[in-house]
Amino acid sequence: MDVELIEIREFIAAHHPFDMLPDASLEKAAGSLRGLYVRQGKCLFQTDDTVDALYIVRTGALETRDPSGEMLARVGEGETAGAAALLRGGRAVNVVEAIEDSLVYAMPAETFHTLRQHHKQFAYFFQPAGGERLRSGRAVAGQGGPRGSGPAHAHLDLMGIHLGDMLKRAPVTIPPDATIREAGARMSEQSVSCLMVVDPADSGGRAAGILTDRDLRNRVVAKALPYDTPVSEVMTPDPLSLTADDYLFDAMLLMTRHNIRHLPVMKDGKLAGVITNTNLVQTQNTSAVYLVGDIFKRDTAEGMRDALEMVPELILQLVETGASAHNIGHVISSLSDAATVRLMALAEMRLGPAPVPFVWLAAGSQARHEQTARSDQDNCLLMHDSYDETKHGEYFRAFTRMVCDGLNICGYVYCPGEVMAMTDQWRQPLKVWKNYFSKWIDQPDPKSLMLSSVFFDMRPIYGNHALFHDLRAFVLKKTSGSKIFLAYLASNALSRQPPLGFFRNLVMIRGGEHANTLDLKHRGIVPIVDLARVYALDAGSPSVNTLDRLETAQEKGAVSKDGAADLRDAWDFISTMRLRHQALRIRENKRADHYVSLETLSNFERSQLKDAFSVVKTMQGALASAYQTGRM
């Protein structure tokens, strides 16, 4: 290979998407190029010309204009022109003119189409920007990622192993009328930590209950029950279960949320076996199960804080082994739930039972099951209308203060806006909460819209869930018929724009602590969360998780199938990028944040990020049009 050809090869290999080609294809591509000098003001091609090559700018700059003269794009060193014409059969629609004296390389159309045919990464780059290209890019990344990006992480086994594949033995059973002495002897004989309670008369093979070693300790020994007590009196009836077709991750999540260590597995409607926390730990990356158990053993907030010190390491493990952002959010949020529930149990032990029914509500990312690294707390308290400030106020002030203080000690710091249950305004009976929402919906001023974005994302954590369901039904009934409110909410959802410039270039933060970075949370993830909230409320959906909202909104016709799919993909990609960035900072012993430098991203990742932001911008435009907000 002569010196000039080597130089051309090295030049195109340094630019995307040529950097993704294997060496043999890269050499053939370089060998096909011919150089052209284009003087400033001269056209490379014009409307209706036949384009027979892809043009790669070596030096100088080109500008694309439509037939009316409006500028559409500007390309510089390493960038290309003519691809759109080649993809439509060679007919030029626009005008490409040199705005500087330029040297360009011309790649014959035949070479261009051959590369597209044989290399999906190359073909993906030249697809029209947006959701379809984002999906294609994700598929390409799954096949190995961009050239020079290093080995891809293995997929998390928890996401790919079916529970049926984990069952090593048939379940050990005992009838409900057996004694606890017989149960203990059977557990010892079979070396198991639980027994499935099955009625021999039930031909369906279903489990009437489960008896664990923890049940024997807490319900039998601790209470000094006689050994001839029937198993049916101490077992857990109707235990939670999954099917053999569910995944190991489903088991981990269910066990984490409910603080259980044994999970029956059903196949064809019959009991097939039991998954234990030991099974999970033997697989990998399941410290969440132990963390929840550890949290519930702690008697102080300081003790829980020590247990939760493992959260950054857990995030790192999950990211490195390929867990999705959706799944990671559910796991980490479940740990926040566990800490909250344990703190409330400790508060009740100290203060006594609550004088009136209540329910503790999480808000924000915890409510949506979208937490990552620990963040500030957003919560509130909903009480029964029998609440009397004079009689009950002191109890609930002390109760909520203990819980919020405890969460702060655990690392979930106080909300800067004081959206917490210990704030008097956000600790109210049902009738007051209904008045709040009525005012926000009927009088959508800026403050109301800000509060709506917080409190329309709520989920019950502990207490009387019926109170929350009553409030939610009231809210959904009002919002589903309030087009004016939804229009204001839609307008508010457009206040955060993705960081894209006029030519789809990524716009960095200027100045300050995070200068020259991208804010993936507030400029990428939050806009999608806001869009999904509007669609869900319009559809009357009770969902709060962003992906769930998009799915139900699509089913009810509030957003198109393609629009929902594009937003789901954009959310997943941006969230995954954010998690990987946080994992990198954790590895470097730095505080996790959401400010990403372009220097840490490959060309492929930058291109994907542009596509994700383009999806958000397009859907924001569609929302503005649908609700006639006057924005955008």
From TrEMBL:
Keywords, alphabetical: CBS domain
Transmembrane segments: none
Descriptive protein name: CBS domain-containing protein
Domain Cyclic nucleotide-binding: start-end pairs: 17-115
InterPro entries on file: CBS_dom, CBS_dom_sf, cNMP-bd_dom, cNMP-bd_dom_sf, Diverse_CBS-Domain, DUF294_put_nucleoTrafse_sb-bd, GlnD_Uridyltrans_N, RmlC-like_jellyroll
Gene3D superfamilies: CBS-domain, Jelly Rolls
MF terms (GO), sorted A to Z: [protein-PII] uridylyltransferase activity
Domain CBS: 166-229, 235-291
PROSITE patterns: CBS, CNMP_BINDING_3
Superkingdom to which the source organism belongs: Bacteria
One Pfam family of this chain: CBS
